[in-house]
Write a structure and sequence with these properties.
- This protein is of the alpha+beta class.
- Helix content is about 25%, strand content about 25%.
- The chain has 19 helices and 37 strands.
- The strands form 8 sheets. An 8-stranded antiparallel barrel has the order 14-15-16-17-18-19-20-21. An 8-stranded antiparallel sheet has the order 22-23-24-25-26-27-28-29, with no helix packed on it. A 7-stranded antiparallel sheet has the order 3-2-1-13-12-11-10, sandwiched between helices.
- A hairpin with a 2-residue loop joins strand 25 (about 510-515) and strand 26 (about 520).
């Protein structure tokens, strides 16, 4: 064996010496190829962990060669099913590319004309069109028709199963939004029309014809319907909750197939890109002439655009001095991105089973293309796009409320730093000495802060103190609320006498009054040029909203009907009689070893407002947990609390404390007693120790004049999405109250819990070790010598 290896090695050496530059070049290419794979593996795994994406699959194509193809993470976390290139995903708007190809085939056969009026093929198609210019297939396929974004029937929120003809007929109820060929306006409604034109031209159902096209390209795992053979391989779609948990979604079949209902794998998308790069030649013959494909990534129509230009089906841009054709899709629980560099025959396709992760996929696709270009041109390998958790000094410097024409707010929730503006939330990371937006749904730009001012989007903002809750009746209280479906509502909110529509927690539209009960969307958004109209019942109350022509009923019970005020325990628990259970060694050494200096708040101020509900049976667990009502905090935390007390006492408020130090054995007993399905609401004693070392507390605000706690979005310890620190509340006053408390606490070094507006952790937490001492045995410092520090005027 050794002889064979030695002979083989000598042969390779001789070959290397005698082959000169050719073999050296091949070895360099092989090295670059390995580096491409290793680099993508590292970056994809890092992004999955950082963005909490359950799973994704990716393929990178160079002409007819697969440079990289793999799956990462889990297609179904519950079943522990890994993602692979053969995992079936819902790819949404990728359907538009195949619809476009089907139309171009009919054009190539002289059965359709891209520039003929749609009425030539669909005489009944007649939306209101005040502009006089006929609508054409070219306009539709390049999103230049001016049609509405979604059809009134068969839209994203429609759970019925209308036919494609019924979907298109409903568009006759709408009005063309912009003059055709003047403005890029994305329109799923337009692609429904294109699909219906195909049906009329072919005299057969759309899906039946598309099956023949897909089969010709040998795309066996791609379908416009939820075939039974694909359902078993379908990944589970997910969405991020307000507290950054990843929540699975039930499958959703969308009626508008030509625009937004495609099932596929990245392996099939790789095969599809090979057909594109082969000028339409597929395993079973030619699909289209190469010139027809060229139109797909050539900007259509010569009119000026205010948004991204389109070819046919693809958005067109420049990347690394190369033409780029892109399609991005956000569908129910999934995000898809396809990027082509047609002049280099390079392409990337990525699908993730997490909605609103388009920025992450753009980053991954961009880096994959840079690697492929570098390999193709034998150039230096590009560096990783890199960011990290911000340094503590940068976090404390940046946190605050900033004022300009459009104010913004930087705040920390759990472990993440966020920027908030007009109800949009963006996660911040550190890049070099600056902050940068690096979130699933947004990436860049850089923020520069010196602690007093903030430079963002070429605008200078100045830091201000926490705002006092505003008085006065809201202007649009009768319109605010949740509309649509309980599991994916549209939330209408008011702020500073302005109305906003929130589609999920990370997409906000500013609404402009147009007429009574009618508001306009921003021109440059998805629903640009369209409106939202609120309708009333016979008693004058708001009953529904036509959200960009989509009828959405008002949710009278709100979107959060899953209120839990008492958790059903799986076994009895009594913290008053619980035998001591020692924390594991890993917990004892997790944080610092600073000597404890516990302060009893009531020993400093006997009138301190306490409402320690775990010392009673009136709490989330329905049983008494604490043997006595105590409020114990480490000295720096207590000093911070009394500093806040001094600030708000002059304004007519006081703090009310619901909970403070909790011995570790009680946290552990609670954790072991609550059902697994509800554990997300409680602190895992193996991972969280801040409440166990006296540096975390639950708190609200008490209004002295009212003699009651300040109204908040939910009750303390209420287990519902209304408890989230960033819940998009329709009622402005409740948001002001919640955010006022949050800003007060942040001004003294506290960070709010993402899922509990009332729970705050002090920045001194890492300095202290976990404690397991019962309340009665806790040693606290003598506060007689600290009265000057803790004194609060009454």
């Amino acid at each position: 064996m050794r002889s064979a290896v030695l002979i083989c090695s000598l042969a390779i050496l001789v070959l290397l010496v005698n082959s000169g530059d050719w073999l050296a070049d091949q070895l360099v290419l092989r090295s670059n190829d390995t580096f491409l794979k290793n680099s993508l593996n590292i970056l994809v795994n890092r992004e999955l962990a950082d963005k909490k994406i359950p799973g994704l699959a990716i393929t990178v194509i160079d002409d007819q060669n697969v440079l990289f193809e793999d799956g990462f993470g889990l297609a179904d976390p519950t079943g522990n099913v890994p993602a692979s290139p053969y995992t079936v995903f819902q790819a949404g708007a990728v359907a538009q590319l195949f619809t476009t190809i089907a139309v171009l085939q009919r054009v190539e056969h002289n059965k359709l004309d891209l520039d003929a009026p749609i009425a030539t093929y669909l005489p009944s198609f007649a939306p209101r069109n005040p502009y006089g210019l006929d609508l054409t297939l070219r306009q539709i396929l390049s999103h230049q028709s001016g049609l509405v974004a979604e059809p009134p029937v068969g839209h994203y929120f429609d759970t019925s199963r209308p036919t494609l003809t019924q979907v298109v007929e409903s568009i006759n109820q709408t009005t063309v939004v912009f003059p055709p060929e003047t403005f890029t306006k994305y329109s799923n409604a337009g692609f429904a029309v294109a699909g219906n034109v195909l049906e009329a031209s072919l005299e057969k159902p759309f899906e039946q014809h598309m099956r023949a096209i897909l089969d010709r390209m040998h795309l066996k795992r791609t379908s416009f319907t939820d075939r039974l053979d694909l359902k078993s391989k379908l990944a589970v779609g997910h969405i991020s909750s307000l507290d950054d948990r990843i929540v699975p979604l039930d499958p959703l079949e969308i009626a508008n197939g030509p625009a937004n209902n495609l099932y596929t794998t990245v392996n099939d998308l790789g095969a599809f890109m090979k057909v594109l790069f082969a000028d339409g030649l597929s395993p079973n013959g030619s699909i289209l002439d190469g010139d027809a494909f060229e139109q797909m990534w050539t900007i259509q129509l010569s009119t000026a655009r205010k948004q991204i230009p389109f070819g046919l089906g693809f958005a067109v841009s420049i990347f690394e001095d190369q033409r780029r054709a892109t399609l991005t899709s956000n569908t129910h629980g999934f995000t898809t991105r396809i990027d082509l560099l047609p002049d280099q025959d390079l392409g990337v396709a990525i699908i993730a089973n997490l909605a609103y992760s388009e920025a992450t996929l753009e980053k991954l696709a961009g880096y994959a293309l840079k690697l492929a270009l570098a390999q193709k041109k034998e150039e230096a390998t590009p560096a990783f796009p890199n960011s990290r958790q911000p340094d503590s000094s940068m976090v404390s410097q940046a946190i605050g409320y900033y004022i300009n024409a459009d104010p913004l707010y930087i705040s920390k929730s759990d472990h993440n730093l966020y920027l908030y503006q007009d109800f949009n939330r963006y996660r911040l990371r550190q890049q070099g000495d600056s902050l940068i937006i690096d979130d699933k749904h947004a990436y860049g730009p850089i923020l520069l802060s010196d602690g007093l001012t903030l430079q963002y989007n070429n605008t200078l903002y100045s830091k201000r103190n926490a705002a006092v809750p505003r008085a006065g009746a809201p202007r649009y209280a009768n319109l605010t609320g949740d509309y649509g479906l309980p599991d994916r509502p549209i939330t209408i909110v008011e702020q500073n006498n302005n109305l906003y529509a929130l589609d999920g927690w990370n997409t906000a539209y500013t609404l402009t009054p147009d007429a009574e009960d009618r508001f306009l969307f921003p021109v440059d958004g998805l629903y640009g040029g369209e409106s939202i109209t609120f309708t009333r019942n016979e008693t004058g109350e708001i009953a529904s909203a036509y959200f960009a022509n989509m009828p959405l009923p008002r949710l009278t019970d709100g979107a959060y009907a899953d209120l839990v005020r008492t958790v059903p325990l799986e076994k009895p628990i009594s913290g008053t009689a619980q035998p001591l259970v020692a924390p594991p060694e890993s917990m004892l050494t997790a944080y610092g070893n600073k000597e404890s200096e516990m302060v009893d708040l009531t020993h400093v101020d006997p009138l301190f407002n306490l409402d320690i509900r775990y010392a009673t049976r009136e709490n989330l667990l329905g049983t008494q947990i604490y043997s006595e009502a105590r409020a114990l905090l480490q000295r720096p935390v207590a000093e911070a609390v009394f500093s806040i007390q001094r600030q708000i006492r002059r304004l007519g408020y006081e703090l009310v404390v619901y909970d403070t130090y909790q011995p570790w054995y009680i946290s552990n007993a609670i954790w072991e007693s609550v059902p697994d399905s509800m554990k997300y609401f409680f602190n895992d004693p193996q991972q969280s120790i801040c409440q166990n070392n006296g540096t975390a507390l639950s708190v609200g605000i008490f209004e002295l004049n009212a003699g009651a706690a300040m109204p908040m979005p939910s009750e303390y310890d209420e287990m519902t999405a209304l408890s989230y620190a960033d819940s998009p509340l329709p009622e402005e006053r409740l948001r002001w109250n919640r955010d006022f408390l949050r800003r007060l606490m942040e001004s003294e070094g506290f960070t709010v819990a993402a899922d509990k507006w009332w729970h705050f952790t002090h920045n001194s937490c890492p300095q202290y070790p976990v404690m397991n001492t019962p309340f009665a045995e806790v040693e606290y410092i003598n506060t007689n010598n600290l009265q000057r520090i803790f004194t609060v005027d009454r």
